Amino acid sequence: MLFMKKNFKILVVVLLMAATSCSFTTKKFDDPNKDKLLIDLITYVLNEGHYDAREINDEFSEGVYDKYLGGLDGSKRFFYASDVEEFNEYRDKIDDQIKEKEIGFFDLTYNRLQKRSEEARKIYKEILEKPFDFSETEDINTDFSEAEYVSSKKELKERWRKQLKFSTLITYHDKVEDEEMKKEEDPDYEMKSKEALEKDAREVTLSSLDEYYDFTDDLDRKDYFSVYLNAIVESFDPHTLYLAPQDKDRFDIAMSGKLEGIGARLQKKSDNITITEVISGGPAWRSEELSEGDEILKVQQEDEEDPVSIVGMRLEDAVDLIKGPKDSKVTLTVRKKLMGNIEEITLTRDIVEIEETYAKTAMVEQEGKNFGIINLPKFYFNMEDYEERNAASDIKKDIIRLKEKNMDGLVLDLRNNGGGSLKTVVDIAGLFIEEGPIVQVKSNGQRKDVLSDEDPSVLWDGPLVILVNELSASASEILAAAMQDYKRAIIIGSKQTYGKGTVQNVIDLNRWLRSNEFGDVGALKLTTQKFYRVNGGSTQLEGVKSDVVVPDRYSFVDIGEKDQDNPLPWDKIDPAKYEVWDGYVDFEKTIANSKDRMNANEQLKRIEQHAKWIKDQSENSAHSLNFEEYAATAERNQEMAKSFDSINDYKTNLTFTSLPYEEKMFENDTILKEKRDRWHKNLSRDVYVEEAIHVLSDMRKNNIREDKLAKVRD
Q1: Which of 336, 353, 370 is the endpoint of a domain?
Q2: What's the pLDDT score for residue 339?
């Protein structure tokens, strides 16, 4: 979330004025029904405060309908076609329900889901009483978005049968491989029969579903109503979100900084629990076995015989299973994102710092020249006291330290940086340019604000390269765009960055209520502003296009803003007044030379092949339910995955070292040393960093900066 203190204060004042002036208006939020009150309150705040509030009409209604129904029954194994036909009467009437503060559609779907869910409980138990025949030739398509709703109980049972058979087949295949491995290790080992293994696998599936129902039985009506509310608010844009009280509480706990667990951030995507980040220094990070994008299928505690499936489980419930006390062990069954294979990974839980936020710096030498690299994971700052510590001041200190080591060029690594404080962006940009505009910000119906660096001094006027990828977002895009527009830096990375050009603030909904008998009603994360480059273009959807495009593992994966539902559109405003940096000779030639090197780089060609294979795997939703065919496919995928192992064997001729002040810290902080050693090892195998150093070597500083040299440059 991009924090904008000045504009946030303005917004809060406006909202508070509106809230406290209810006695002077006809707008009151005093409906005795909590659900209706929330509908009224949230839609009012959306209409008054959202940057680009949508008209709540029939088209809006249809979008909410599709999103909500997909959230209730994405695998289409509960509702019948007749149910959906009944629901369809509301398809273009949800807007009317909202305006009239009616919840008839929600009540209908909620009650019907409870009924169908209870019916399904009997179905899966009946199916799992009998053995599956894995010798039969049949398939399943797991792309449920293309499936039709069933028209009879017979069809529903058949859908459940195939889904249960597929789940059991995966477990059965793993158990067969385990038995064969035990036999290889011990020729005297007596292998279990296929019938016994099938029964064991079926019991695991049954146990997993029983656990799933145990959790869903604990869900309250309000949990489902939150799904409905978010189907409404997310129709405004993908970053607007209703936070129920319990969600806001968990968010606050997470912000405390520490937890006991494995050190990974999780997100629920459809029915799958996916790792979105491996936290540096935590057990998952130290093991080097888990990666972003991996899906966790099952969780097994050290004192339990069988794992529990978390497929379809509530995210918070899955998290509760995965986290645990320090020094306890947990075994995760994981489907690897990059390889597509399924692995069991055992981790010892530990106390984990929720995130390693701060910038880190290394020195690198190549052919007699000294370079620096600064990795910035987030544009951080202390909300209570900006001057206490922030990303800009930390980077400034390290640039001074690098200059003391006679630095010839600097790499600023913004890969995977999701954003943060706007002020730090302006302050960091000011380290590299003379005074001038950095970003333009616009609120709905208001004049734009131009945020500028007002300090004419330049801390670093030498060669500068910025690394980005598809996950560089928000504040990262502002800095990269500003440096690109000024021609101050060369941008190396993905075809484009994430494409998030919007600003969100969290609004406490309770402040709108003069009296509240319902207790805490939650909060709304609301998109309130858009930001623009100094050249007038928005980064929304389009992101920042790299000067030198290089393939990576995300190249063919749909993860950007443009791939989300209901993103705000791209647009442009008038450019700000700024002067292009006149500090380089042969700027364009340097970019051209880099492109030539990248086009001839065999490592990058291999990375691109791997990325295409990953894309192909992700699009394959057809799976055989025949054991021999399934096993053959699994073996082929494992062999193909192994063929890309050489990517990780790549080594550069670069050596990385820490700054002297950190070297002294290592004497008493072995964990920090371990983290830096790991980082340096990864940097030494990083083809993108290698190219960044090449570019820095090619960039020639214009020390004269006369008009004739500027013309030569052009």
Answers
A1: 353
A2: 67
Question: What's the rounded Cα separation, in Å, for the pair 330 and 323?
Answer: 8
- Indicate if 388 and 424 belong to the same structural domain: yes
Q: How confident is the model at residue 210 (pLDDT cuts 50, 70, 90)?
A: confident
**Cα–Cα distance, 74 to 67 (Å, whole number):** 10
Q: What is the mean pLDDT of the chain?
A: 86
Other beta carbons less than 10 A from residue 311's beta carbon: 18
pLDDT in tens, 214-268: 768 767 898 899 999 999 999 999 999 998 876 654 544 333 234 678 888 888 7
Q: Both 231 and 283 in a single domain?
A: no
Q: Assess whether pLDDT exceeds 80 at residue 330.
A: yes
CA–CA–CA angle 604, 292, 525 (5° rounding):
120
CB 244 within 8 A of CB 222: yes
Token digits for 347?
């981790």
Domain membership flag for residue 45: no
Spatial CA neighbour of 52 closest among 237, 219, 221: 237
Q: What share of the chain is helix, strand, coil (3-state, %, to 5)?
A: 45, 20, 35
Residue 406 lies in a domain: yes
Residue range 657-700, pLDDT digits in tens? 999 999 998 888 777 898 899 999 999 999 999 999 999 999 98
Provide the sign of the torsion angle of the four alpha carbons 260, 261, 267, 273, taken in this order: negative
Number of domains in the chain: 3
Query: Domain for residue 78, yes or no?
Result: yes
Q: Are residues 386 and 308 located together in one domain of the fold?
A: no
Say yes or no to pLDDT of 16 above 80: no
Q: Is 313 exposed, middle or buried (0-12, 13-18, 19+ CB in 10 A)?
A: buried
If asked whether residues 268 and 385 sit together in one domain, one would say no
Domain limits for position 309: 258-353
Q: Which of 151-165, 204-218, 579-593 has the highest mean pLDDT?
A: 151-165
SS3 709: helix
